[in-house]
Amino acid sequence: MASFGEEIRRERELRGIGLREIADITKINIRFLEALEKNDFKHLPGGQFNKGFVRAYAKHVGLDPEKTVNSYLHELNTQEEHERARMKFTPPKKVKKAKARSIAVGIVLLLMIIIALVVLGFFWARYDPDGFLGRILSSIFAR
């Protein structure tokens, strides 16, 4: 069974009508007409505009406008159901695990740097007790 877009394109071609002609007469952008024929509804403005485009297209080609709108709505619902099903069964990405790991690595590195600075400070104060750091540490621990 042909899709909505294939069906309206076939009917238009059978009547020898070009997309440019429909675009000029209906004042609908040719990109939107191409999107209708490709069932690429996400590139249409949406809502009532889309129904109006389908009605105008159908009238110009000589199709029943209401029947064509119903076919469009059926195709649209089918696409939305497929999209919902695809989204429902898409496995979650492992972003959370990678983010938790990078946070843990960052914390460990920060702790290692702090420990290294404290150890270096004590060694510096031990070998240079009259220096700046030695005086600070001796005043802290002398209390």
Structural notes for this entry:
The chain has 143 residues and is mostly helical. It folds into 2 domains: 4-88, Orthogonal Bundle (434 Repressor (Amino-terminal Domain)); 95-142. 77% of the residues lie in helices and 0% in strands. The longest helix has 33 residues, at 95-127. The mean pLDDT is 86.
- Provide a count of the helices: 7
On the 0-100 scale, what is the average pLDDT? 86
Radius of gyration: 35 Å
Summing up helix and strand content along with how strands pair, one would put the structural category as mainly alpha
β-strand percent reads under 5%
Number of domains: 2
Topology:
Elements: H1 4-14, H2 19-26, H3 30-37, H4 47-61, H5 65-88, H6 95-127, H7 132-142
Helix pairs in contact: 4-5, 6-7
Can I get a quick summary?
With 143 residues, this protein is mainly α.
Observed structural traits:
143 residues; mainly alpha; 434 Repressor (Amino-terminal Domain); 2 domains; rod-shaped
